[in-house]
Amino acid sequence: MEGEVTVETSVQAEWKRAIAERFKDSEDFVYKQLKRGGERAEILFVRTAADWQSVYEKLVLPFYDRNIAEHYEDYAASLPNRVQPKNLGDAMEKLAEGHVMLDTGRDIHMFVFRNQPQKDIREAAVETVIQGPLLAFSAEVDKNIMLLRQRCYQPSLAVDLMTVGSRSKTHVALLYDLEKADPATVAEIKRRIREIRMPVVQAVGQLSMLLGESPRSLIPRVLVTERPDRATLNLSQGKVVVLMEGTPFALIAPTTLFDFFSSMEDIYQHYFISRFLLILRYFAVFICLTLPASYVAITAYNPEVFRVELALSIAGNRFAVPYPAFLEVFVMMLAMELLLEASIRLPKAIGSAATTVGGLILGQAATEAGLVSSIMIIIVATVAISNFVIPINSMSFAVRVAKYGLLAGATLFSLLGLALGIALMIGYLASVDSFGQPFLKLFENDDRHVKTTQHQAGGDVRHSEEVS
Amino acid sequence: MNRYFFYLVVLFFIAGTAVQQVVYLGAAYRGSLMSLLLAFAAGTLLLAATVRMYARFPRQGLPEIANGLLPRPLAAPFLLAQTALWFVTGAVPLLYISEISKRYINPDYATNEPLALFLAVIVFLVNMPSVKLLYFLEIILIFNVPLLVLLCFKSYFSDQLSSYSMLEAASRIFEAPNYGAFSAAFMLFTGCTALSVFNRSIAPDPAKMRYLPLLSFACFLLVMTAYFIPIGMFGADGVAQVNYVWFAVADTLRMQYGFIDRVLFVVLPMNILTTLAFALTAWHVGLEHWKSVWPAPRTVWGNLSLVYLPLAAMSAFLFVLENQLGFSRIARYANYWNLWHVPNVLIVLLLLWLAARPADRAAGGTGN
Q: Would an 8 Å CB–CB cutoff place B251 in contact with chain A?
């Protein structure tokens, strides 16, 4: 990477030195010297952003081509995709964007050789949005870096290539924004990746556990996403993105609880719409966590909580049910979990049949047989639907499991158990860290998702001065 | 990070009102209104004084300040006394809410069951870093302040409110104040003294505290609401007969169109959560004082026992208390305990003032 001593003007040397310095943390940055006899030329480009095949054909080969070589300077100057950088900063941005810099010794040329999005990049299947970028990450690290480079034309984007797995030697790329990311966090994540001693690492979920996320912890603290736009947004917020060869998902760390409840569409929609959707989502989480528990607490212990008409109607509904409320809830929740699990594992063609059989027929029949009350069916359906509202899969699973904790609390200790269970949950979330950053903290983190990232940096700096 | 300071002050009001109310309502004909007003004045002074005092010790808690000023044989007993004070301060509302849980949620609870549940949550969470405790407080308050506002508004517009009773109580404003009622109301204003630990992690800047009068005005409104509303509902005589005033008030109110009919069941979770947060904060402050007395333990077990021994002792003490004394006697003793708040606050302020003096002199008296 070091610039070699050639006969050239000081401006060119200074530019190249500055560029090499700027990109020294990006391992996909290429700084190549071409030599032929006494002639020298230097090519600088970002491998994942530029189309290196074209670079090779249009710039490298002609340098060695006897016919062109004599007029290489003229050849370079007359290439149609040549552009003129305005200044050094512009040149750097262009490089990050996928331009190629050629120093022939006499002059500096820049060419557009942008890598076009490949045809074989698939659409997002797990985190879908209605209107927004559709592409998802692919299974190749280089291509994924390219996707991110195309979204985030910043020279400050650092790329660190590493391998994990003593046998699998899986390629892993660590990306972060040099200007935004906290160096201590980056160093910590790098250290943890280096310390991985597993023979074979195959999926980012596995990697996230190896990164120190406790396997016993219910709450995910590393975000797994398939969306390049989410990764780009998080990069711009100073987070670290880890890409892995063979997995079309990226890891994002550190995270906050709110990251798991944000959909990319929140920032693509108008303010009130996105706020409405956000509130809806948190409401859904609240419902999903507390509805079964409050059903048990209220019907079994405190029917007087509800107004008389409602309490009577629930009691009337439960009239035929021969066992206590908590058993009813457990049975129906179990049926719902089975149904969900079955519809994931089954081939798609049978999946819909299973859902129909399970959901419609079983639910209907169970009510008519008097095994569960019809209100219970409504509750189960509401819980299942609200669970699906959570945009990030890992959090959706966590909530799915956590509701049983509250259910147990309510079953054993009624409303007090429910209230204290919620307090315990909030307290636990507030007390944990994600790579040294507080995991649950109101307002400052929340706003990052909804606002554009203009003035947050100032707020964050002020915050870190005053707290912690 | 001024807003966290705000939360501490507000938390003491919300969680303390239910408990302390009983005391000053009981003294309704013995100058409690005057005591409330005096307590408000004193509390506002305390708020301003505490913020200014601690602002001279950025990033330092009371333990560091005390250890710096006093010789160890004096500092250690002082900090142990603070520990005890904070632990008991947190315990009183805890015993109260545990009694409430038995009365209003489930009479079938075993004697210690609600208390044990509260203690389990508190012991699990109390040793978290101070900053994170504040994050937790923030969330709890954000959930609960709207419920408090709902309760206030429902009660303002309730047709069971008798303005004659309230006027009768108000007309007694010039009766000589009563120290018991004064210290009970004063306790509500002691939220700012939690800075003795939280000053390490938050640094309230007095220059940025333009909202401080607003805060104390809001507190004043709350105190007045908590004084006049029960009197308006039960009469100045009747209110002394009611055991759990705040909850009785809430249970008087009805919401006509909600799923939930009785306002009590909206207010109850609020009180459970805020009391929990209050006890957690108070015990956290006590625990930090306690930790500062002893040298830092070297082993994991040393660390665990340093933290959890006092918690276990305190929990056991509360169980015994609840079993042996019964609630009414606990409430009476808790009132005696209230009397101690005023002298304690004065002692702490004196200590801060003494500690700040040399610093001011060195800085050429530039402190504000």
A: no
